[in-house]
Amino acid sequence: MTSPSASALVEDETLPIAEVARRTGLSADTLRYYEKAGLIDSVRRTAGGVRRYAAGDMDWLAFLLRLRDTGMSIADMQRFAEQRREGDASVAERLALLREHRDCVDRRIRSLRENNRALDNKIAHYEELLEGER
């Protein structure tokens, strides 16, 4: 997946949904779902109804993808998006949600490291068995 960062966008430049899909690796259907589910705000549209994603939309999508890639549930992502729309009044709640999620990510990382060490040990065991057969 490529980074959907807005850094490649010139101010006031917008992108159609097909280009956003290409840059993010999300399908157009998923982008529409994210909008319908309240994960992203209503995207600006042309007079003909074509969605046009601005730099801010791309930055927010990049953050949502990080949350998704780190295992945050859609429900928690929706909660975070709603709190974000509330503005400064919800900063403490957003901070708490992100800290809680980071703690979950840290636990998963520790578990993955432990599991990786177990795999290394098992691989070493089988390599020793094969060496003994030669």
Features:
134 residues; 65% helix; Multidrug-efflux Transporter Regulator, Chain: A, Domain 2; two-stranded antiparallel sheet; 3% strand; MerR-type_HTH_dom; DNA-binding transcription factor activity; mainly alpha; single chain
Structural commentary:
There is one protein chain. The chain is mainly α. It has one domain: Multidrug-efflux Transporter Regulator, Chain: A, Domain 2, CATH 1.10.1660.10. It is built from 5 helices and 2 strands. A two-stranded antiparallel sheet has the order 1-2. Helix 4 runs antiparallel to helix 5. The radius of gyration is 21 Å and the shape is elongated. The chain starts with 14 loop residues before the first strand and ends with a helix. 16% of the residues are buried. The mean pLDDT is 92.
Helix-strand blueprint:
Blueprint: E1 15-16, H1 17-24, H2 28-36, E2 52-53, H3 55-69, H4 74-85, H5 91-133
Antiparallel strand pairs: 1-2
Brief overview, please?
The chain is an all-alpha fold and 134 residues long.
Lateral strand order in the biggest sheet: 1-2
For the biggest sheet, the summary is:
2 strands, antiparallel
Elements, N to C (H/E): EHHEHHH
- Number of helices, counting only DSSP H or I runs of 4 residues or more: 5
Beta content: under 5%
What is the 3D form? elongated
Number of domains: 1
Cα-atom radius of gyration: 21 Å
Extended strand count: 2
Uncertain segments = none
Q: Could you give the distance between the termini?
A: 44 Å
The assigned CATH architecture is Orthogonal Bundle
CATH fold title:
Multidrug-efflux Transporter Regulator, Chain: A, Domain 2
Task: State the share of residues found in helices, binned by percent.
Answer: 55-70%
